[in-house]
User: Which sequence fits this backbone?
């Protein structure tokens, strides 16, 4: 077998390595990781994967498989969808391996080094909101992972392309300054296109941020924005619920979410209009201690 | 296969026992093959506080150790929920990982446990199943064929689970399939079982624990990536090694239950791979497999059990070895006149399911 070279991607809190003979995947990676310079020396990677094409003669269309450590942890994707498979799969692997940190299921953006955390279940609109805030001038840390160093309580960026789904593609793509990768139609999650965070956020990917504000967002079509404070104890529990590994960390996880709730103020925000939500958040952020 | 792969395996086996002094790149390869074989938390156990390493390596080891202790905690919690179901009318033995945990055996540290295995006397199997059901555990829905397979030919009932719990409970009435060539009367296991202090459960006696680990490793299922079970055998043997008469009793017990062969393999590979201090007299007291079986096992067991080169899909030779070992398992488990119709039927069912699934989900197979 021919040895494929690995392409290293340093996204901040983690380093990824990906190898593939699929040229289109590399073109797509160039598009959604435009600021990354090639890393030539061999370095430790937190997740190292290969995306290998399946048989050309499969009657129902060629597929692509993600291999990690000699195993196939996931079902194959259609051949054209190598990028979504890499993004989704490597995120999943990281979520299993980064238990040295508290991992929140949250979007994270910051002004200077003061961070806003947006914890939410899938479908609540955290990716869309994180991208919109980024386009409104906030630093992008992540749309998916709130990586928290439990010793200092600081947030580590994980600057990766943000997968926008279905209507969000046009909503965010239509905003000035938005850079999106190719659209992958009809994946299991519907149409997907990756939003590319800007160069400043990429360059700041090793710069930690201090959490000051937590907003639990919930998109509701047509709703007028409604914002309510969340008491600290409740916020701690809701942060825990929106975490990948709160349970697995046991007492450490409990301490970490309590510490996070103590040093931040928390609100719940139901919104129907993105710009109105951003305006609300700016006010909350300004008022946050 | 990359040229330094065999030395990666040697390094992994060494790293389970002593702290390693290697660079980050080497650590990454090691972590990858350790993960593939479920040994990463054991690697953490032996290295985390002892070896010098970079922060990123430490974080990965810490991550594995945390998940293993979380899983261990889940097993303890499940056993806590199960304890009220154990009454004085018949004994309930906790097998394998669950027992190691409750008995605070060293071998439990860094070991990933995925389910709770209980052994009850066959005539009380229904009663125990009823109790579990009344307590809220539910069996997954099986086809009548699978149901019959479990009841008539297997040594366990279909797995049961409490809704919302992550662990399955497997109820056994024997350690070997009733159709297999190694079948023996499980009543003898109960005779020598021991209470687990502070719990209503019992555990197998040390010799039977070792024998069960060997049986499970070499005669119960495929051998793919099972090096961790040899690590368990080694750990158990080391735990008991200093007890007077342990080795003599072990051999005697293997003869009594007809388990010389699995024990021979267990001792052989634990010694070969992990330097397990087996007294020479012990293995000599067991009848060795034929030269041919030994050659075949020497060639294929490592290929099947060790993780292959993490940078590529398993090569043909490894896949062949694993297939061969799977065939061996099926032959050990059932006579051919039962096995062939069984496998044919399973293949047909799988094919049918695949065709049906294709019609339902024309999209992609995204997870």
Assistant:
């Amino acid at each position: 077998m021919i040895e494929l070279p690995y392409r290293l991607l340093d996204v901040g809190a983690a380093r990824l390595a990906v190898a593939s003979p699929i040229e289109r995947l590399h073109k797509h990676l160039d598009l959604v990781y435009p600021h990354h310079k090639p890393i030539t020396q061999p370095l430790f990677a937190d997740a190292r994967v290969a995306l290998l094409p399946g048989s050309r003669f499969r009657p129902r269309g060629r597929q692509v498989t993600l291999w990690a450590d000699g195993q196939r942890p996931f079902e194959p994707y259609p051949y054209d969808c190598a990028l979504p498979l890499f993004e989704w799969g490597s995120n999943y692997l990281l979520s299993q391996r980064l238990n040295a940190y508290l991992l929140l299921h949250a979007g994270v953006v910051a002004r200077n080094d003061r961070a806003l955390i947006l914890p939410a279940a899938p479908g609540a609109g955290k990716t869309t909101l994180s991208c919109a805030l980024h386009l409104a001038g906030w630093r992008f840390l992540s749309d998916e992972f709130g990586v928290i160093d439990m010793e200092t309580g600081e947030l580590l960026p994980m600057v990766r392309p943000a997968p926008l789904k279905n209507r969000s593609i046009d909503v965010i793509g239509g905003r000035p300054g938005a850079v999106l990768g190719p659209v992958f139609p009809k994946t299991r999650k519907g149409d997907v296109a990756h939003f590319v965070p800007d160069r400043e956020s990429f360059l700041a990917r090793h710069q930690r941020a201090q959490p000051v504000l937590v907003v639990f967002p919930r998109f509701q079509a047509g709703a007028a924005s409604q914002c309510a404070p969340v008491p600290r104890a409740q916020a701690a529990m809701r942060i825990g619920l929106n975490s990948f590994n709160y349970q697995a960390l046991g007492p450490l996880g409990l301490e970490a979410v309590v510490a996070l709730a103590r040093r931040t103020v928390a609100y719940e925000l139901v919104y129907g209009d993105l710009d109105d939500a951003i305006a609300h958040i700016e006010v909350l952020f300004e008022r946050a201690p | 296969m990359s040229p330094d792969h065999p030395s990666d395996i040697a390094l992994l086996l060494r790293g389970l026992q002593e702290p390693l002094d290697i660079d980050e790149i080497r650590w990454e390869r090691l972590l990858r093959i350790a993960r593939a074989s479920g040994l990463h938390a054991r690697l953490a156990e032996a290295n985390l506080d002892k070896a010098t390493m970079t922060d990123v390596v430490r974080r990965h080891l810490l991550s594995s150790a945390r998940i293993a202790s979380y899983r261990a905690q889940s097993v303890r919690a499940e056993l806590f929920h199960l304890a009220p179901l154990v009454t004085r009318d018949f004994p309930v033995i906790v097998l394998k990982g669950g027992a190691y945990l409750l008995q605070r055996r060293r071998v439990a540290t860094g070991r990933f446990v995925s389910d709770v295995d209980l052994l009850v006397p066959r005539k009380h199997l229904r009663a125990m199943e009823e109790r579990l059901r009344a307590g809220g555990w539910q069996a997954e829905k099986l086809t009548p064929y699978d149901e019959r397979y479990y009841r008539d030919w297997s040594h366990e009932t279909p797995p049961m689970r409490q809704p919302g719990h992550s662990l399955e409970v497997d109820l056994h009435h024997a350690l070997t399939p009733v159709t297999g060539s190694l079948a023996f009367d499980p009543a003898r296991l109960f005779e020598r079982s021991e209470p687990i202090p502070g719990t209503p459960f019992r555990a197998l006696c040390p010799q039977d624990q070792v024998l069960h680990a060997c049986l499970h490793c070499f005669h119960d299922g495929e051998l793919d990536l099972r090096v961790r079970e040899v690590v368990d055998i080694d750990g158990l043997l080391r735990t008991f090694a200093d007890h007077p008469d342990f080795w003599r009793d072990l051999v005697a017990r293997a003869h009594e239950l007809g388990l010389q062969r699995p024990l021979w393999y267990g001792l052989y590979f634990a010694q070969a791979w992990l330097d397990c201090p087996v007294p020479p007299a012990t293995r000599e007291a067991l009848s060795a497999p034929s030269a041919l079986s030994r050659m075949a096992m020497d060639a294929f067991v490592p290929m099947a059990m060790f993780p292959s080169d993490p940078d590529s899909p398993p090569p043909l030779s490894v896949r062949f070895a694993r297939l061969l070992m799977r065939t061996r398992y099926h032959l050990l488990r059932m006579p051919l006149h039962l096995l062939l119709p069984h496998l044919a039927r399973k293949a047909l069912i799988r094919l049918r399911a695949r065709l049906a699934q294709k019609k339902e989900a024309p999209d992609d197979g995204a997870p």
Remarks:
- Helices of chain A lie at 23-32, 82-97, 126-135, 167-173, 199-203, 232-241, 251-263, 274-287.
- Chain A has two domains: 7-97, 102-287.
- Chain A touches chain B through 41 residues (CB under 8 Å).
